[in-house]
Amino acid sequence: MKKIKLKNIETQAPQRINKEAYKRKLDKVIKELSDLQHLLYASHTYSLLIIFQGIDTSGKDSTIRHVFSSVNPLGVQAKSFKAPAGRELEHDYMWRIFQELPEKGKIQIFNRSYYEDILVPTIQKSLSNNIIEERYEFINAFENHLLCNNTVILKFFLHISEEEQKKRIQERLNDPFKKWKYSDEDLESSEKWKEYEQVYEQILNRCSLKLPWVIVPADNKWYRDYIVASTIVARLKKLNLKFPEK
Q: Which residues sit opposite 51 in a β-bridge?
């Protein structure tokens, strides 16, 4: 497998494509996703785990909000994983993950995930290299276990440029409706851009053997949403789901 280098991967939509045409295509795909989610729920055979990772301001929240705007909330749940706190600190790092895995027929969305438990301690140098290595091995085995038990996994890395991140951080500071989103983490990720990029490259390369990441050009929100939605729809279609017979 060719090694992933993020600096060589485009963060913007191709110039040749028409923005308005893709927005119309996005509307159609979101409707398809709604229908397929209903079928997934009814068939009760597979579960779907969708993981969103990306540097701060890459658009994880807004992607989830737009792509899943038409699904039935009874069949979809979203969980945002922040720094562990309270009871979570009394358990191993995967304990809180196990609580949120999807049931058959359900879609579970992770806004950040167990990959933060490699990313953050690597950046902060809070764990030894041996422990980090064990986490890589365990996470690959864990995902393989889920696959063997009819959990479909889609992993999206929202890929923005350093310039776009700086622009979005400034927007958060200037816009009263977005300022609440700003945190010190935004500034830290901006100041440590190269470090975050390097660790993400390690994650993308080392955790892609059976479950390749979808690296989504995310500078243009409309294109980002289309890529995510169309990828989910294509994967659900491959399951050949059917409504149960009476």
A: 110, 155
